[in-house]
Please model this.
Amino acid sequence: MSNKRRYIFIFVGVLLVMILVPFGIHRIKEKRDREETPEYVFLYAENQIADYPTTQGANRFADLVFERTDGRIKILVKPDAELGSEMQVIQQMQYGGIAFARISLSQLAEYIPEMNVLQMPYMYSGPEHMWRVLDGEIGDEFLLKTREHDLVGLSWYDAGARNFYSTSPITCLEDIKGMNIRVQESDMMADMVSALGANPSKIVYSEVYSAIEQGIVDGAENNWPSYEAMRHYIVARYYTIDEHTRVPELQICSKAVWDKLSEDDQKILEECARESALYERTLWAEREKSSREVAEKSGITVIELSPEEKLRFRDAMASVYTRYCGDQMDVLKAIMEY
Ligand code: GCU
Model:
């Protein structure tokens, strides 16, 4: 290469570096600025502890949204019911005070009574049946229905099956008769427990441990991960596997917040919610096993309800079907046959 060509070559190289480097730095700075000052900062309410599957699902959701909006939307996940009980959170979401939450369907059904049909006792033949329903058009329709109530349903999270646990054993219907049983702040749940001959007590989730410890109630009902994560197994040492309900959870957004966002952002939120739900469901399966192990290792007694007793529980609870789904028999039938 002649000296002249070499000089031209070096000159063009230096020129390119002078133009491109500042441009690159500018782009990086622009991106960093955007990440440091998001356009929106939203709160996400979660009443479970930090390492619970639903909370980890929420964190995944927040990360995905941050990534896919280039840092324009930042979601701050607040676990441990820091933002209030589920009922309080729903109320605040209806006015846009809290943007996102993961809420148990039992609680949401207090606001959207039609939702009760998705949590009828002994309705699903197993988890596969429930997921066929929720991931199919019935589930989609119910997510849309939330919009009539100032909320936007985004995705379904898993919460397994619920079972009774107590301070004395429940092996048959007679055992639970007359017991004081904690239920969620849900009329359907209260009626279901009354139908068994027990006395329901509506107590907020965070207070269940002390209610059992102080003898205010003789037991409660929930899935394995809640029983373990909230340390209920320390105070209620008998866990009866009767799987009376499968109550899914919903990820929801406040409609007041949703309506302020662009269609593109809404699409991103929906996508990320659904992806985070798939992640939560895998974590759920693992946590169900490990929670049971923790409780069993502590020496609790696990009681498997016999098929005959299960039928008796089921028959006793049948009255809630007509009370809560009387005007939705077609939906109920569709769910059962799905
Ligand atoms: C489940 C659910 C919670 C709910 C709780 C309850 O653990 O994940 O959101 O509050 O049930 O029984 O209250």
About this structure: The chain has a mean pLDDT of 93. The longest strand covers residues 238-246.
